[in-house]
Every structure is written in structure tokens, then in C-alpha cells.
Amino acid sequence: MCGIAGIIHRGKSNNVGGEMQKMLQSLKHRGPDSTGYALYGEGESNNYILRYKVGENVKEGTTAVKEDPSVYAARRKEVDKKINEVGATIHDDEKITDYSFRYVISYDGDLLDLAKKIESVEETEIQSLGKSLELIKDIGDASVVADQYSLNQFSGTHGIGHTRMATESGVDIRSAHPYWAYPFSDVSVVHNGQLTNYWNNRRALEAKGMRFLSSCDSELIAVYLADKIREGMDLEEAMKGSLEHLDGVFTYLVATKDKLGMAKDTMAAKPMVLYESDDLVALASEEVAIRSVMPTEIDTYDPYEGEVKVWQA
Amino acid sequence: MASIKGHKSTEMGLHEEVLTGRTQQVFFNPEESENFFYHDAYDVDFNKRTEIDAKDIECLDINRKIKELMSQGYGTIVIKNPGSKHSIGVGILNKLNLIVEGSLGYFGIGSVDGPNVRISGRVGWSCAENMMAGKVVVEKNAGSCFGAAIRGGDLICKGSVGARSGIDMKGGTIIVGGDAGAFTGFMMQRGRIVILGDVGPNLADSLYDGTIFVGGNIKSLGADAVEAEMTELDVDWLKRKLKVAEIDKKVDFKKMTKIVSGKKLWNYDNLEPTERKGAI
To answer: Which residues of A touch B182 (CB under 8 A)?
Structure first.
């Protein structure tokens, strides 16, 4: 089933970490396996924020292979070495869990080169690399993940998130949403639904040099949009194209440094409820998620089939 | 199990086939007094009024509370602070005035038979699914699958509704004051849908029977849906129904589009008599 949610404040920052935690927690019944957040903060001036992991969270119910935690430290050292090798500088580094890290780095070169270097380290996956995006995902419900990564006071303009019920791939962080639109900084995607022409599209995109890390169909949307942006399309144009090229039933949210967008398939088979005011836009698979941050009575509506909408922060 | 010998239904042609193999069919005898009332249906007094504050109550407990109050004879129940929670007001099988001050989530007022419900806010997906009788009025918008598989009653949304409204509908009336999404009336089998605004693509796709009236633009018709001529009877019926629906919108009924089934798509005529009756 899966649940998705997003919120964007117009022209001001707010506690989007706390808001997204409440919204996603109220969608827990739609997907208890893992939860992910893509939060857009004030950033670190010209520096990049790198979120990456070097292993999986292995516990009861997950499908990842258990490793000796001692390998994580060695992999982290290797990542540090690779970052230095491409000429990037680490200004701040933080260990969030044994396997997950947050760095602030400065770098003037090609992001793709940096990303490739970092991911050449065994089992290492960049979750996000951007100037304002911080992408966090892990096993457990929204509160568990928010507490683990201290997200409840995260200040920013917007965010999207996902509660996952694993259907077509494993219960692990790799298959959890959101997906970063590698290698474009600050682009992330969450999705509710199934894509039925996943392999055809994946093969075509891989032939063009695009990279896939998981076998989760939702990753295809992020990679598809990244490819179209690479070809010069703007976000809205790329999203409209996705309705023609991606087959299946889906509703997805995409966020960039200053925008949040939604797209719904032409059958309108997956839910989305939308609230829009002068100050903010909130949207979710169920109204109960919006009501978790706006307890008073509000006017909401369901976007229609084939609709694409984009809002500016 | 009631005896079927000499029963009216046999005279009408039902149960004439020789059934082979296992069957779970239970024959219904309308003359047996216990069949007049549902289990858990109550005799209530509309003048006896009470409130439920749903703010900190889970949906299961809200529904239990409604049942408990009905068993005490309360005929008017006001639900305050529903907070868009799911499945509120389901399974009410008797007369009741239910007033919801706020919005409901998914599957609200499902499987009801008889209540008069007014919702001041919005409803999520599948409102009033499987309704048998009664009247449900939603003051704002509704999500998809509005009135899925209803068999009777009047279901009214004064705002706009999502996709697949009236899917698999088997009777009753759905009235929408605003617009409706794709696949409205999909596989509808009987009853009437009235949409005063615009309708999305594939209207009345695979419609078996029933009628759909549209006041605005239709994006496209579904398979086997055809336009029919509006009659004076249709106009009279629409006037009466919209009055019941309390929708104050100026409508030129004669300019509405009437959609019915082309009856070319399905294999309906080849069905066995019992199966045909079961299908509608």
C-alpha cells in the first residue's frame, strides 16, 4: 500500500522535520516496514551536505544480510580517502548510527565523479548529496526513524516522506524511499503504486549511463526524472512526460531545492489529498496525515487523473 | 432455512434450475417475522439527541458508542471532532439522524441501511460504500469511489468527487454538485448518477444498466456508453431529486446530457436466469 506525504511553506522556514514526522506517523498503517524523509533545510552556504550509509540496519523482519559492525568503520575511512582523492574537503562529519553518516563538504568538481568515487566503496550508498536536501531513511515507523536521526527539530521550507509496505523488493534501507535523483543535487522522489514497465525503462536508462542501486520500481521515477532534467527539461515538463512513459498505477511526489510537485497516473488509482493555502501546501495519501499538523477543519480535495502540479517554496 | 415449496419466488421463476454440487444459498422468506429486522437494529426516537466527542477516540470505539447510544433509544447523534478518521458510522441498520461536524476519512458511513446522515466537511475514499437505504449529504468534496456498490438511498456531495464514483452501483441515486473524475459509473448496474459539473474520461465505462445525467462537459465516454435523449420524465425526476438534494444551483435540465448503456459489450443475455437476477 505505502503512504506518501509532503509539505511546503511559502516564503518561510518551519519545523518541517517535526511536521513530516507527525504526518508520516499517522500513515503508519499504510506501511510499517520503513520510513524515509527528504527534508530541505537552510543549507550550508556553498557547501554540500552528504548523507550516506555503509551498511544496512539488520533486525527482525528485515531482509538485509547481517555484517560485523567493525567493517563500517573501515568503509567510512575508505570513503574519507575517496572524498579527498577527488579534491573535496570535509568540513564537518557526524556519525548518526553505526552505518549512517552526515558530512558537510566543499567541492567544485563534477558531482557525478564525486558520487561514483564514494559509491565505489563496498556496500556504500549515497542517500543524498545537495545544498539543502537531507535524505534520511531507515527501518521502522516515522517516530523511530525521527528519533534515531534527531529530525524532530529540523528547520526548513519543505519536505516529502514515505512509509513503506514492502511488496516487490526487500525490507531494507536500500529499498526504502525517498530516492535521490542521482546525480542531481537536491532532487528527491517518493512514490505510492506499482510501475509495470519497470524493466523496459530501466534497461533503456542504464544504456544511457544512468545508475540504479535497488530493484525497487520507485527508484525508476527518480532516475527517469534525473535523465529528463539532464536533457534540459524543467521539472514540470519532466513530470508530465513521466505520465506518458511510465505505465502502471501511481501517485508520486518530487521535491527540488525550492519546489515540490505531485503527479497522478491517468487512472487515478492511487490516492492523494491536497490542502492549499496562501502560507503552505500539504498533501498526503490520506487526509488524516494533513490533519495531524492542521487540527482545525480545512477544505481539501483529491487531484484528478493525469494531474501534475508544482509549487514554489 | 425457510421452505421454498409453494413460495412466491418459485412462482416468479426463481429456484427452478436444478442446482448441483454444493451451495451456500439461504432462502429468504419475507413472511417470517424475524426477517423484518436486522440483528443490531434499534427502535430510536429522533427527539432524543446526544453528542460524541471523537477527538481522542479510535474509530472502532466511536462506532461502538453510536451503537450503544442507539440501543438506548437516541435517534439524533452528533459527532464532534471526527478529525478525518476512517470508517466512522459504518453498519448502521436503522433510522437515525447522524450529524458529523467535520470531515471523515476513508470508508465513512459504509454498509448502512436507513440512516439520515449529514457531514459538514469532506469525505475520503469510498464514502457510503454498499449503502442500502437512507440519505447521506456531504457539504464539501469527496474522494474517489464515492458511493461504490450502493444498492439504494440518496448519496449527495455538494462539492466535487474523485474518480470511479458509483463504481459497481446497483441502485439508488448519487448526486454531485461539482465535478467528477475518471471512470464515473464504471460497471454500474442500476440506479442513477447526476453530475452537475464536468466529468473526466471514460464516463460510464462498461455500464450494464442505469442512467447518468451530466450538466457540464464530458471528457470522454467509456466502452459501451451512449448518449440518449432527455425526456420530460427525466426533467421532472431531476427537478424533484435536486430539491431533495438541497442543491441550489440553477440548472437547465433540458441541456443536460443523458448517458445509458449501449448493451453491446457484455454477455448479459446468455446468463442463466438466477445468475442474471443475482447480477442486478
So the answer is: 266-268, 304-305
CA closest to A307 among chain B residues:
B181
Its pTM stands at 0.87
Quickly tell me which residue has 466529468 as its cell: B199
Q: Domain extents for chain A?
A: 3-43+139-312, 45-131
Per-residue pLDDT tens digits for A93-123: 999 999 999 999 999 999 889 999 999 999 9
User: Which residue in chain A is spatially nearest to B107 when comparing CA positions?
Assistant: A286
ipTM for the predicted complex: 0.84
| Per-residue pLDDT, A53 | 95
Q: What is the largest CA-CA distance in chain B?
A: 57
pLDDT tens profile B44-83: 999 999 999 999 999 999 999 999 999 999 999 999 999 9
**Structural domains for chain B:** 1-36 (no CATH), 41-279 (2.160.20)
Regarding the domain delimited by A45-131, which CATH topology (the fold level of the hierarchy) does it fall under?
Alpha-Beta Plaits (3.30.70)
Q: What b/e readout covers B152-161, taking b as 16+ CB neighbours within 10 angstroms? A: bbbbbbbbbb
Cβ-defined contact of A300 to B122 (cutoff 8 Å): yes
CATH (residue range A3-43+139-312): 3.60.20.10
Residue A216 annotated as catalytic: no
Q: Do B84 and A304 touch (CB under 8 A)?
A: no
pLDDT greater than 80 at residue A287:
yes
- Closest residue, chain A, to B143 (C-alpha): A302
**A267 min Cα distance to partner chain B (Å):** 7
Residues 260-289 of A with CB under 8 A from B: 266-269, 271, 273, 286-288
Inter-chain CB proximity A304 and B103 less than 8 Å: no
Report the 10 Å Cβ neighbour count for B183.
27
